[in-house]
Amino acid sequence: MEGLVNSRTTSIGPQYRQQHYLSVPPFSLQLTKNLNRSRISFMNNHPKSFTSVAASVQPVEASTLNRFNNTLPSQEVLDLWRKTDAVCFDVDSTVCLDEGIDELAEFCGAGKAVAEWTARAMGGSVPFEEALAARLSLFKPSSSQVQDFVEKRPPKLSPGIDELVKKLKANNINVYLISGGFRQMINPVASVLGIPPENIFANQLLFKSSGEFLGFDANEPTSRSGGKAVAVQQIRKAYGYQALVMIGDGATDLEARQPGGADIFICYAGVQLREAVAAKADWLVFNFKDLINSLN
Description:
- By secondary structure, this protein is α/β, with parallel strands linked by helices.
- 37% of the residues lie in helices and 17% in strands.
- It contains 13 helices and twelve strands.
- Strands 6-5-4-9-10-12 form a six-stranded parallel β-sheet, sandwiched between helices.
- Strand 5 (174-182), helix 9 and strand 6 (200-203) form a beta-alpha-beta unit.
- The longest helix has 13 residues, at 227-239.
- It is globular and about 55 Å long.
């Protein structure tokens, strides 16, 4: 649910092919070739009801990549990644290839209006809660529409995310989903990845007894600006984690790296490259395979 911050964005533009597995494009090798430098060398069946997608990631131009000096992690960052107690993932454009609210709006026949509003919002800074309310007001989804959407438009997982989550769990690392999206749409994602409901921090759509749209729960920390940082701080305080990592693509994910929150921020740019965010990340990756292999 990023995209309401004024920053330069490059869409990686995945092209989808229905498969029985997730295939990881050899992006790291392309980066190595494009940048003429060495990298640290660094997928899982889904339930039948869940859409499995292979993404063919379009390489980013070398001129773009040359602007970044963090595509290789420092030893300190690598050590923190390997010894972390918990990993918090953004969902839209990170765990999933989709931007959930835009997909729901399109399903409800208001995709263009929401997209246009988002484009206007990108011209300046907009408080997250204001942006969320404005976008929802454009199509006011009913509970039956949301349920229909979840059943007919299962989210598409980013290549390699299921293997990465399995690897983290095998290493006794706790995994959380921190999202400005909605629980109704994130619950199926968590289920297929084996992430318990109590490890989801996201917004909640509210409906009247008739099923008519009412609004969203403003008590959720992720419903407002700076909410992801608050959620990460709450997680760390509650469980006393010695080391915690945030992975995402946007400015709200970057904000989670602060005292009492995430120790490091890993920017995943396999779907969207938000250059202002990527430049400030501790580690910039375009393929989850890098993170998987670095844990071996």
